[in-house]
Amino acid sequence: MILVIDDEEVVRNAVVDVLEFSGFRVLSAASGVEGLQCFADHVGEVGVVLLDMKLPDMSGMETLRRLRTLNPAVGVILCSGLEESTLQREQQHDPTLAVLQKPYSLEALLDKIRQVTPPPQPSPFP
Fold first, then answer.
1. Strands, E assignment, the chain
2. How many domains does the chain have?
3. How far apart are CA 95 and CA 102, in angstroms?
4. What residues make up the domain containing 35?
5. Would you give the DSSP letter of residue 27?
6. Tens digit of each residue's pLDDT, the chain (126 residues)
C-alpha cells in the first residue's frame, strides 16, 4: 500500500488516481499530522510513502523523521519542486529513500517506487 502525503489537493488526487489505475492500494493525507496518523493506523500495511517536502503544518523532513520512528524500514519518496541538494545527499546513504523532482512522469514515479520497495522475502516454508 502507498501513502501519498501532499497538501495540494489537485496533485494529491491526480497521484492517487494514477497509482490506483496502476494497481496499487493507496491512502492519502493533506498534511504531515494527518499523514502520520494515517501511517500509524496502517503501519503494517504501508510499504511506501510519497511525501511532499512543503507541508503547511510541519516540514517534510520532520514528517520523515516521525515516520521513521514508527517504521525505520518504510520506503519514502521525497517530492519537491525545488532543487534540493540536501535531499540528494541524504538519499545516497539510505536505500529506502528516494528523491523525485516535481513535475514528474508516471514512469519516473513507478521507477522510484520500485527503487525504495524491498524485494519480497522468500518463505521459509516449501
1. 2-5, 26-29, 48-52, 75-80, 97-101
2. 1
3. 21
4. 2-116
5. E
6. 999 999 999 999 999 999 999 999 999 999 999 999 999 999 889 999 999 998 988 988 899 999 999 999 999 999 987 655 555 555 556 778 888 988 889 999 999 999 998 665 555 566
